[in-house]
Design a protein that fits this description.
71% of the residues lie in helices and 7% in strands. The chain has 13 helices and 4 strands. A two-stranded antiparallel ribbon has the order 1-3. The longest helix is centred in the N-terminal third of the chain and has 29 residues. It is globular.
C-alpha cells in the first residue's frame, strides 16, 4: 500500500513543482526590498527558482518515460499554445499605451514561460529516444555541449546571430530567472531577467529522460546539477565567471556523477576519449579565438 501511495505521489509531483514555478516566477516582481538587501534577495530567489525548474523538469520527464506518447503531445501542444500566447495581446487590446494590470501581465508572462518549458521538455524527451543504450551517453553528452557552445559563442553561430540581429526573438525563446536590477532608489524590486535559453532545457530534459530510462543516479545528478548551476549563475551575476552556455557545466556534472554506471569496451573507451578530446580542444580553440 505504501509503495502504491508513493508511486501516486511521484506521478503528481509535477503539479506541486508547477505551482511553485508560477508562484515564484509571477510573484518575484512584486517583492520590494531595501536596496542593501536586493542582491541577497536575488540570490535566494534564484536558488529557489533553480530548484523549482530542476524539480519540474525531472518530474515531467518521469511522466514522459512512463507514457511514451506524452513527450510528443507536450512538444506539439506546448508549441501551439506558446505561439498562440504571443498572438494574444493584440486580440486583448494590450499595447504600450494600454498596459494590463501588473498582476495579470505577470501571470500571462509566466504562462508563456511555462508553455515554453513544456515544449522544451517534450522535445528533449522525444530526442532522448535516439539514445538506445546508456553507453552512448558518454560521447553524446560532450558532443551536445560542443554544439551548444558553437551555436552560442562562435562568431557565425546561430544563437549569437539571433541575439545580435533579433534580440526580441532570443528573449521570447528563453525563460527568465531573477537578477539584480539597476537600482538607484532606497527600495528596489527583485525583477526577472532573461538568462536561460530554451536549448538548455531541451538537453536537460534529454539527460533527465535518459537518467530515468537507464536507471542511472537520478537524485545525485539532480542535486549536483542544482548546486553547480546555482553556483555558476551566482558567479556570473557577480562577474566572477564568464557567461558560458549552461549545457557545458551540465554535461560535466552528468558524466562525473554517472561515470561508474557506464560499462565501456576498450574500443568504446578509445572512441569516447577521442570525442571528449576533440570537444575539449574545440571549445578551448573557440575561447582562444573569441
Amino acid at each position: 500500500m505504501q509503495t502504491v501511495q508513493q508511486a501516486s505521489e511521484r506521478r503528481w509531483a509535477w503539479l506541486g513543482w508547477s505551482l511553485a514555478f508560477f508562484v515564484l516566477q509571477a510573484g518575484t516582481p512584486f517583492i520590494t526590498l531595501p536596496l542593501q538587501w536586493v542582491k541577497m534577495g536575488t540570490l535566494f530567489s534564484t536558488l529557489l527558482l533553480m530548484a523549482t525548474l530542476l524539480g519540474l523538469i525531472f518530474s515531467l520527464t518521469r511522466l514522459t518515460e512512463a507514457v511514451r506518447w506524452l513527450g510528443l503531445m507536450m512538444l506539439v501542444g506546448g508549441a501551439i499554445l506558446w505561439v498562440g500566447g504571443w498572438l494574444l495581446p493584440p486580440v486583448l487590446g494590450w499595447s504600450a499605451q494600454n498596459r494590463p494590470p501588473m498582476a495579470l501581465f505577470a501571470l500571462y508572462q509566466t504562462s508563456l514561460y511555462y508553455l515554453l518549458l513544456l515544449t522544451a521538455v517534450g522535445l528533449g524527451s522525444v530526442l532522448s529516444r535516439i539514445v538506445r543504450e546508456k553507453n552512448l551517453l558518454v560521447p553524446v553528452v560532450p558532443f551536445a555541449a560542443m554544439v551548444d557552445v558553437l551555436t552560442v559563442l562562435a562568431p557565425g553561430g546561430f544563437v549569437k546571430r539571433v541575439m545580435e540581429q533579433a534580440p526580441e526573438v532570443a528573449e521570447r525563446a528563453s525563460v527568465a530567472v531573477t537578477a539584480v536590477p539597476s537600482a538607484v532608489e532606497t527600495f528596489e524590486q527583485v525583477v526577472p531577467i532573461v538568462i536561460i535559453g530554451v536549448g538548455d532545457f531541451v538537453f536537460l530534459a534529454l539527460y533527465a529522460s535518459c537518467l530515468w530510462r537507464f536507471q542511472l543516479r537520478v537524485l545525485p545528478t539532480a542535486i549536483g546539477l542544482f548546486v553547480v548551476l546555482w553556483v555558476y549563475l551566482v558567479m556570473v551575476m557577480v562577474d566572477l565567471a564568464p557567461k558560458l552556455p549552461a549545457l557545458l557545466p551540465m554535461a560535466l556534472v552528468f558524466l562525473a556523477i554517472n561515470w561508474r554506471e557506464f560499462r565501456l569496451s576498450p574500443q568504446e573507451k578509445l572512441a569516447s576519449l577521442v570525442v571528449v578530446s576533440i570537444v575539449i580542444g574545440f571549445i578551448g580553440w573557440l575561447f582562444w579565438r573569441t
